[in-house]
Specification:
83 residues; two-stranded antiparallel ribbon; 5 helices; 47% helix
């Protein structure tokens, strides 16, 4: 695990998340809700990492796992399409 690729949820959403993530979850609160209710799957797949008492987004893995949870395909160009 590369610690430099971890980001706090708010920082990830605001600064480094792919555009499709900010399009689907147009508000930070919506994104937080998705993370909260999918925390077990995100953590199990390595998209969310718990360090101490905080959770951090693994920026390389998160878009892939989020797309899987949503049932869509995340292609190389960052575009998302329904399977």
């Amino acid at each position: 695990m590369n610690l430099e690729l971890l980001a706090r949820k708010r920082d990830y959403y605001a600064e480094s998340a792919p555009i499709w993530i900010r399009t689907i979850w147009s508000r930070q609160e919506s994104f937080d809700h998705f993370v909260k209710y999918n925390r077990l799957k995100l953590t199990a797949e390595g998209a969310l990492i718990k360090l101490g008492r905080d959770y951090f987004v693994a920026s390389e893995k998160f878009p892939i796992v989020a797309a899987q949870i949503l049932g869509v395909v995340n292609d190389v160009d960052g575009c998302v399409s329904h399977e």
